[in-house]
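Long-time lurker, first post.

We've been arguing in lab meeting about whether zinc ion would sit comfortably in this protein at all. Half the group thinks yes, half thinks no, and nobody has a model to point at. So I'm putting the question to the forum: if I give you the sequence and the SMILES, can you give me back a predicted structure of the complex? Inputs are below. Any interpretation is welcome too.
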Amino acid sequence: MKNYEKVVKSVTCDLCKEEFNAKNWGRDGDCKTRVSYQSGWVTRDNCGGTEYSVDVCPECFMQKLGPWLNSQGAVLREKGYGS
Ligand SMILES: [Zn+2]
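Top reply:
Settle the argument with this. Predicted structure of the protein with zinc ion, as tokens:
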């Protein structure tokens, strides 16, 4: 039995078009940004749907998307995490 692992080698920011990898995505390399919307259906035996998403680098999230959301009346929720 073969075991496959799905690995993302790099991500291109959909706003600034810069390519990022695990080493330069954010200052400490541990940032995750992704904006998505899922629309789907579920039955007893099946499920499916469509996901719409964009990949946004941490800088564009904070410098572009966040201020735009604020201008539309949304407030970014801030929550600490970690041990
Ligand atoms: Zn960007």
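For your lab meeting: The beta strands are 10-12, 19-21, 34-42, 47-55. Residues 10-71 form one domain. Whichever side wins, do check it experimentally.
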